[in-house]
């Protein structure tokens, strides 16, 4: 048949742009549109119904009943005329219609005798397609049927709008997620770059402070130490804020000596109290000795609040008090209060002081220093423990910050660790894996001060070589090194060399989940840089005074496989052999895809491997693959998926070894 001319709307360019905005052309079937088409067929009692869209050259059917094709040329379409109208086009009998009586789809083709089409009109007035009812016999719709078609047409447009909004929201969500990931990565990398030289500054200053100094030198060293510690507080505040925002800062629950912790905070801060200020610690006589909770976060909260009070109190007193306010069979409720007679806070500022980067007065930062992050972090740390912080203050008369925390009761006081830590460690021989020359020199001096021997490896591979030749009591492992980093080195020591030697992670990095990853690959302790000598010695004592064992051997649950086998042991053996043959190769392929940012291959590999891990009930490894698959779908790998990839690598080696034994 010859192509015939067809009408073109006066706003054709804008109409086509409106159509393309919905990204609907050539998409897969959709239940919402199919249901609408079925409804049209049912309401109008017709064998042919469709939802279609008209572009430059064709009529494309998003959903159809009785058509049997996905598209037709635009020039043979009845709907070419429908999109020219603002209301429904109804032709009760095409044989009697001058325009269509000789049309090939009337005399043959689809044998159209009845046609009803309503334009699909966008909110801004463009007819991008049609909703149609077609029959092989003449008929006429009643008013209810016409109204129903109008309602369904509006529903189709609403569905398009909703889908577009969801795509836009999803795009914005991905942009926001990537922005957060970029920010977290930037903060973590910056913290590493800042912490590395800061570690040397603080470390060598501590060593210098232990030498014989005159009064002036002692004063200078004290000033450098204070400046270094203040800089470290700012870095830690920013990183804690990032972890809280991303939901990766968790509250630990371990037994700790409450009275000892509170006295430690007091002793830590009292050395900086000026002579014009009286600094007090009042503890309730009924206060429990040991509780279960997060000692580190309590330290952080009290040091921050008390440090603020001391900073803003030039004369008078600062009092920290702790009182038991309630008790149940399982919990103590303890009220913590930090009260001062300092500058106070204006009443109109009390509601904003917990906002980040906010201080009560602009002059406060200039006069007393600080970032305005401390109180915001304190507030969020308290809220993470299901409580809230309150403040009372009057300008010129001082302030009181107070909150109530619930701590679980400890069944018994564990004093064994304290006894162990007091024992002499003897002359330890330690291996340090560290590539930074300043940090090597610092560690060498610190370790020699402890009375221990030290060998240094420039990277992980050198560390492995030294471990192969010499006997060591302990390894201090930097995480970021050339050739083999700390994670790869630890995996090799644990999985290939099968050594139980204690390994302490030492890093200036502070990526979310890093500490967890260190423990997952087989490290025994974690010391962030810059480290205090006491902190490092404490970590060394803790790992040397416990029975060091390899990580608990993984147990493979074959219950699902056994159920699938219906009692056939050969089937189980075949499945195990298939896993051993297939999975290590696929993990290698996944790592290659990951390193090349080949998201499509990584997504397919992760998805396919999950079913194998599920059969062997390896839920933790299946979760690792889910994280990698999700980030591959998003088109961006983060430090979390890299963590999961590395955990997967070491775990699969372990699983294969166990399965081979089976």
TrEMBL record:
Q: How is the protein disposed in the membrane? A: Multi-pass membrane protein
Give the enzyme class: transferase
Keywords attached to this Swiss-Prot or TrEMBL record, sorted alphabetically, are: ATP-binding, Cell membrane, Kinase, Membrane, Nucleotide-binding, Phosphoprotein, Transferase, Transmembrane, Transmembrane helix, Two-component regulatory system
List the record's Gene Ontology CC terms alphabetically.
plasma membrane
From the Swiss-Prot or TrEMBL record, give the protein name.
Answer: Sensory/regulatory protein RpfC
A GO molecular-function annotation: phosphorelay sensor kinase activity
* Gene that this sequence comes from: rcsC_3
Q: Which residues carry this modification: 4-aspartylphosphate?
A: 478
